Amino acid sequence: MAVSEVLAALADETRRQILLKLKEGRINSGDLANALNMTPQALSYHLSKLKKADLIYETKYKNFIYYELNLSILDEAVMWIESLRGGQV
After folding, report:
1. Helices (H), strands (E): how many in the chain?
2. Could you tell me if 15 and 50 are in contact, meaning their C-beta atoms sit under 8 angstroms apart?
3. What is the pTM of this model?
4. Which of helix, strand or coil describes residue 54?
5. For the segment 66-86, what is each residue's pLDDT rounded down to a tens digit?
6. E strands along 1-89, which residues?
7. Could you say which residues of the chain have pLDDT below 70?
8. Residue 14 in 3-state DSSP?
């Protein structure tokens, strides 16, 4: 995991909103764009940043692309941040 990519992805409010929506469960890109009131182009930009940081999974089924959280990367990021506070890594 590249901690810098994860932190950069989490630094953006829009990407945090996307992650909060994905916390509710797997969702296709069209429904995600509608739920967040975003254009498909804007959503695609933010999803690419989240994918690059490995914070989300992308799966394809027929004509749809679905997204969901990658909780293992979030766990790793939390562990790294905790290590700064003197916790165990």
Report:
1. 5, 3
2. yes
3. 0.87
4. coil
5. 999 998 888 888 888 888 888
6. 27-28, 56-61, 64-69
7. 1, 87-89
8. helix
